[in-house]
Amino acid sequence: MIKLIKASKQYDNGIWAVKDVSLEIEKGEFVYLVGPSGSGKSTLMKLLNRQEKVTNGQVIVDQFLAHDLPEKKVHLLRRQVGVVFQDFKLLNQYTVAENIAYALEVTGESKKKINKRVLEVLEIVGLKSKMHQLPSELSGGEQQRVSIARALANRPKILVADEPTGNLDPTSAVIILRALEKVNRSGVTILMGTHNDNIVNSHPHRILQMHQGKLVRDIQRGVRNEMD
Ligand code: ADP
Q: What is the value of pTM for the model shown?
């Protein structure tokens, strides 16, 4: 599903944000990506939807060679990789339903199909009753659930969440985790970047740990593998 082979990313300022990372994530896995700030988590996640391109190595996502994908095909990869951000990135002048519909309009689907899908994804995150409200009228946790619904709208195979609980109180963070676990049970592969030790400890899943751009640890089903 996701395979990195000696993937490295050097930014224009000379920093190697990701160094020689090799890893595999199977379809349907739920994986935490942890490590201190600046260790390369966001950059690694950006390599998956070609928001950034590797300097060396290979990044294979679903059937796409993300490291070698022509620009005109990048939208096909992005349809398979839903993204959730720490700060929600909702459009504040639009209602909850409109925020999600907006993500679908570029696909050229009919209005009827779009409306049906909007209701389906709001049902998954338990927010159908708030569909006509503005994001500013919702709590932070609810806004994040809307952004999860929006990320699911295109039926992605993979959901990448970069610090999705970073702006939330502990109770809301747990609700977001449960929503992501529910999405995962429906077959979506999840990679979640996080600093939230409480969440990682209370909701155990595989953990990939980064340090200074390298993958230093892979803790899988209770088995800890130190990396080279
Ligand atoms: P994390 O998500 O673990 O905090 P990042 O991937 O954001 O780590 O950053 C890894 C390193 O790359 C840091 O040293 C950061 O300053 C640098 N970096 C991140 N984005 C850019 C960029 N767009 N241009 C230059 N350097 C960057």
A: 0.95
CATH architecture, range 2-91+156-219: 3-Layer(aba) Sandwich (3.40)
Ligand 1, residue 193: give the atom nearest the CA.
2
Domain ranges of the chain: 2-91+156-219
Residue with CA at minimum distance from ligand 1 atom 7: 42
Q: Where are the alpha helices (DSSP H) in 33-139?
A: 41-48, 74-80, 96-105, 111-124
**50-98 per-position pLDDT tens digit:** 999 999 999 999 999 999 999 999 999 999 999 999 999 999 999 999 9
| Ligand 1 centroid to residue 153 C-alpha, Å | 29
135: left (phi over 0), alpha (psi -120 to 50) or beta: alpha
SS3 161: strand
List C-alpha distances in Å: 86 to 92, 114, 160, 175.
16, 26, 11, 15
Q: Which atom of ligand 1 is nearest to the CA of 210?
A: 3
